[in-house]
């Protein structure tokens, strides 16, 4: 484990970005991923440890225009307790109910879960299905600037994102789903609330005149990053949710995933889970 030479606790986003601009910084928020990873040798502390828990701009859940802004420091417990998340971003709310233990939820942040970039990250799958973007802040020229990156472009691989070392993930922005949109989140594991996902699925749509509209499907733990399933979505969009349509979507989804065999499950078993659990999720959505 590398030695920490300096500890910083900025009180503003401006101050945090300035510290990052100087370089060689490890960012600490909830620590539920960082601490086990450093103790296990996966991550090495940089000379400067920056605790961002006191940066007010990183907090809060609020509607801003046509989107919900969720601050990077918002904990999983706060998401679960938010009526706005439950009512307007229900896919995300369902995923948080399957997130680890109460103790972890109280500390773990949405920003940390996104930056950890696990292929099985619990909040990543519903956020991907909901077309979320991340807001990255930095001071490249001494002036605070922000850029928005679609979540699908932010996630590059296991543990890898497009965040530069001088950038801080400030928030995630989620477009408000259209009226009538409903969805289902499913996570499979030995103990679904506490274990890393064997697979996870977020599926949503709205029924309009007996046909499916605004179809969204995302998977976790079946590729190097959480992924959307555009071919499966296209197989359902604008069609009546009959048995033939659902089966076409299931077969399309199986062509889009790239699961591996590891200690948690085999490639074959993950494919079986995707077929059966996606069918269950879509059936649930179509009956609502």
Q: Can you summarize this structure?
A:
With 288 residues, this protein is an alpha+beta fold. The protein is built from 12 helices and 14 strands.
Question: Explain this structure to me?
Answer:
This protein is 35% helix and 26% strand. The chain has 288 residues and is an alpha+beta fold. The radius of gyration is 19 Å and the shape is globular. The relative contact order is 0.12.
* Poorly predicted ranges: none
Strand content: 25-35%
Cα Rg? 19 Å
Number of strands: 14
> What order do the helices and strands follow?
EHEHEEEHHHHHHEEHEEEEEEEHHH
Percent helix, as a range, is 25-40%
Q: Which structural category fits the helices and strands?
A: alpha+beta
| Arithmetic mean of pLDDT | 95
Strand order of the largest sheet: 4-5-10-6-7
N-C termini distance: 51 Å
| Spatial shape | globular
The main sheet comes to:
5 strands, antiparallel
Oligomer: single chain
Total helices: the number is 12
Topology:
Blueprint: E1 6-8, H1 13-22, E2 25-28, H2 34-39, E3 48-51, E4 61-64, E5 67-71, H3 76-81, H4 83-88, H5 90-96, H6 102-107, H7 110-116, H8 124-129, E6 133-138, E7 145-150, H9 151-154, E8 155-157, E9 160-161, E10 168-175, E11 182-188, E12 199-208, E13 211-220, E14 227-228, H10 230-236, H11 243-256, H12 267-287
Parallel strand pairs: 1-3, 2-3
Antiparallel strand pairs: 4-5, 5-10, 6-7, 6-10, 8-9, 11-12, 12-13, 13-14
Helix pairs in contact: 10-11, 11-12
